[in-house]
Structures are given as C-alpha cells and as structure tokens.
C-alpha cells in the first residue's frame, strides 16, 4: 500500500493546515519568534510555581505577543495589512521585552530563594539575550528602511541618478 503523503496528493485539511509553512520555520525570524514564545511560556510556568508569582504577567504578555507575531508572519498578515509597519512594532516589542526580562530576572534571582524563581530568572536572562538579538536584527532592517526614505520596495523605486538622467533627456 502506498503512503498518502508520498503519492503527491495534498494533505487533507485539518490540524496540519494550522501549522506554519516549513520555510518560515527555517527562517531566522521564525526561529527567533519560536524561541521567544517557548522561553516566555517556560518563564510564565516557572513564575506560577514560584514565590515571585507577581512577575507572571510580563512573560504571559510576551508569550501572547510573540505567538501572535509568529502566526502573523507565518500567514503573511504583514503583507496583507499595510497600515501597520510591522518591523517597527516588532522592534518596540523586542526592546521592551529585553528590558523587562532583564529587570525581573535580576529581581527574581536576588530577592527570592526558591528554585522556581531562580529557574525563571535564568530562563529570563536567556530570553533577554534572544530578545536583544531579535531587536538587533530588526534594528538593522529599520535602518535600511530609513536609508531608503520611502515605504516602497527598493526594486519598485527609481534611484535619484535615474531620475536626473531622465530629466536631462
């Protein structure tokens, strides 16, 4: 008997239709958003089990935001909704997350002595590094956008040299 997936037939609709495309999962942005979601969820669980339960709201919000952006980028919502400049929103999310995770991780490790708080702090420092790397990458995209001086893609826009050449004809 032949395997249905190897026969070349498309997969039947179902749970697999909710999964993001493989290309996105292999991209740097997809891996960063997945790592941010997983780390935020682990930190949230650690804070629930710890004495520092008052810190659980920040990882929960970051988990939900990272998960939303993960599925928004995977389903190409950023291409459908042009009213939002997605890299700027992502940059601001990453900067605030890195700062908040760094602050609450220091507080969790230094103020609380239980193992769950310390684990949340250690995972929080790891999340700080991941979010900082993500905002560094996103910052480079923003700088490239600002140097362009337009919201049009570079291939759809003529350069100033071409414009001056066509004016002199």
From TrEMBL:
<keyword id="KW-0812">Transmembrane</keyword>
<feature type="transmembrane region" description="Helical">
    <location>
        <begin position="32"/>
        <end position="50"/>
    </location>
</feature>
<dbReference type="Pfam" id="PF01284">
    <property type="entry name" value="MARVEL"/>
</dbReference>
<feature type="transmembrane region" description="Helical">
    <location>
        <begin position="56"/>
        <end position="74"/>
    </location>
</feature>
<dbReference type="InterPro" id="IPR050578">
    <property type="entry name" value="MARVEL-CKLF_proteins"/>
</dbReference>
<dbReference type="GO" id="GO:0016020">
    <property type="term" value="C:membrane"/>
</dbReference>
<keyword id="KW-1133">Transmembrane helix</keyword>
<keyword id="KW-0472">Membrane</keyword>
<feature type="domain" description="MARVEL">
    <location>
        <begin position="24"/>
        <end position="143"/>
    </location>
</feature>
<feature type="transmembrane region" description="Helical">
    <location>
        <begin position="120"/>
        <end position="139"/>
    </location>
</feature>
<protein>
    <submittedName>
        <fullName>CKLF3 protein</fullName>
    </submittedName>
</protein>
<feature type="transmembrane region" description="Helical">
    <location>
        <begin position="86"/>
        <end position="108"/>
    </location>
</feature>
<dbReference type="InterPro" id="IPR008253">
    <property type="entry name" value="Marvel"/>
</dbReference>
<feature type="region of interest" description="Disordered">
    <location>
        <begin position="149"/>
        <end position="169"/>
    </location>
</feature>
């Amino acid at each position: 008997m032949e395997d249905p997936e190897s026969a070349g037939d498309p997969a039947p609709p179902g749970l697999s239709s909710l999964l993001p495309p493989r290309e996105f999962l292999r991209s740097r942005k997809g891996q960063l958003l997945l790592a941010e979601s997983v780390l935020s969820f682990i930190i949230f669980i650690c804070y629930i089990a710890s004495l520092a339960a008052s810190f659980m709201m920040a990882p929960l919000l970051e988990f939900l935001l990272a998960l939303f952006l993960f599925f928004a980028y995977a389903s190409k919502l950023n291409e459908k909704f042009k009213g939002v400049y997605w890299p700027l929103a992502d940059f601001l999310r990453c900067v605030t997350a890195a700062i908040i995770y760094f602050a609450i991780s220091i507080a969790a490790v230094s103020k609380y002595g239980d193992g769950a708080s310390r684990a949340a702090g250690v995972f929080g420092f790891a999340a700080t590094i991941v979010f900082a790397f993500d905002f560094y990458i996103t910052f480079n995209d923003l700088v490239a956008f600002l140097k362009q001086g337009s919201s049009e893609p570079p291939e759809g826009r003529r350069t100033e040299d071409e414009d001056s050449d066509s004016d002199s004809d």
